[in-house]
């Protein structure tokens, strides 16, 4: 399994100097990246790199960076056709949604199928990235499992964020086994030893109550996040299970950090190098 980086981890540096930041990422040794794009932001037509597809491809090739995925917001696929066209031109194999915050999240599976059809039209795959709210229960079933059961396996795949799965009270290894051949990417960060709160969010929130973006934000504290290898999560166990299943990439995604973003991703890189069963090239 190869190690990569979700560029969201250095989003503030990207906003200030996208080319310089990508060079720092490459020089540090990250060769596989996943981009992100917020259509309501200034990169609405450039999808995370601040340049058109032709120029982006030239820059990425020059830096030796391979894009292995791309996050699109929101879940409803308005604008997704153009997004897929851009990434297909870059030669990216898959794009996905970085999560959804609607209170009626349990009704969103049809949108995932539609997004999958749009991506497939461009010859690429579509995947969904979880946070913690997908592990609420509706009628005795996790929403994330409903997404699995109610979507076409030929159209919708999954990217598992082990941090948020662990925060839901579920062992990420069990979820890897559940999603198995529909699991195409992993996200990894760590839970802080001194977080000042329980690992499992549902120890303080009701698992049956819809979670708004506001409630989620109130429970997304910088103090809970740690760089890889500095917290309490059994990351080697996650790597071992992912390799058993055949997940090709594990991507650092540092949602929040007390450190400078560049220092943060370097700290995690140094920790990743100590784990077994991973590759960089």
Notable characteristics:
281 residues, alpha/beta, eight-stranded parallel beta barrel, two-stranded antiparallel sheet, 11 helices, 12 strands, 18% strand, globular
Describe it for me?
GO terms for molecular function: isomerase activity. This is Sugar phosphate isomerase/epimerase. This protein is of the alpha/beta class and 281 residues long. It has a single domain, classed as Divalent-metal-dependent TIM barrel enzymes (TIM Barrel, Alpha-Beta Barrel), CATH 3.20.20. 36% of the residues lie in helices and 18% in strands. The protein is built from 11 helices and 12 strands. The protein has helices at 11-16, 18-28, 53-63, 80-90, 109-121, 143-149, 162-167, 172-179, 213-218, 235-245, 261-272, and strands at residues 2-6, 32-37, 66-72, 94-97, 125-129, 137-138, 141-142, 156-161, 183-188, 190-191, 225-226, 249-252. The strands form 3 sheets. The chain has an 8-stranded parallel beta barrel, surrounded by 5 helices. The chain has a two-stranded antiparallel ribbon with strand order 6-7. Strand 2, helix 3 (53-63) and strand 3 (66-72) form a beta-alpha-beta unit. Helix 3 (53-63) packs across helix 4 (80-90). The radius of gyration is 18 Å and the shape is globular. The mean pLDDT is 92.
């Amino acid at each position: 399994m190869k190690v990569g980086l979700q560029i969201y981890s250095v989003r503030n540096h990207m906003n200030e100097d996208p080319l310089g930041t990508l060079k720092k990422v490459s020089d540090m040794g990250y060769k596989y990246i996943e981009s992100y794009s917020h259509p309501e932001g200034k990169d609405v037509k450039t999808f995370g790199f601040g340049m058109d597809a032709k120029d982006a491809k030239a820059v990425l090739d020059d830096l030796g960076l391979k894009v292995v995925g791309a996050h699109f917001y929101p879940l409803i696929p308005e604008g997704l056709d153009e997004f897929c066209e851009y990434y297909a031109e870059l030669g990216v194999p898959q794009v996905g949604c970085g999560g959804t915050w609607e209170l009626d999240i349990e009704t969103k599976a049809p949108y995932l199928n539609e997004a999958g059809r749009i991506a497939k039209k461009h010859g690429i795959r579509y995947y969904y990235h979880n946070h913690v709210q997908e592990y609420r229960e509706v009628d005795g079933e996790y929403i994330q499992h409903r997404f699995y059961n109610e979507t076409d396996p030929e159209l919708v795949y999954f990217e598992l964020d082990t941090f948020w799965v662990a925060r839901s009270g579920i062992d990420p290894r069990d979820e890897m086994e559940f999603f198995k051949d529909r699991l195409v990417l992993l996200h990894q960060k760590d839970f802080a030893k001194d977080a000042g709160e329980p690992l499992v969010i549902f120890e303080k929130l009701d698992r049956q109550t819809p979670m708004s973006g506001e409630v989620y934000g109130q429970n997304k504290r910088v103090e809970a996040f740690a760089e890889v290898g500095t917290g309490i999560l059994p990351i080697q166990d996650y790597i071992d299970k992912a390799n058993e299943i055949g997940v090709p990439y594990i991507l650092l995604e540092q949602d929040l950090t007390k450190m400078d973003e560049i220092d943060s991703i370097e700290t995690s890189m140094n920790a990743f190098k100590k784990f077994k069963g991973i590759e960089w090239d």
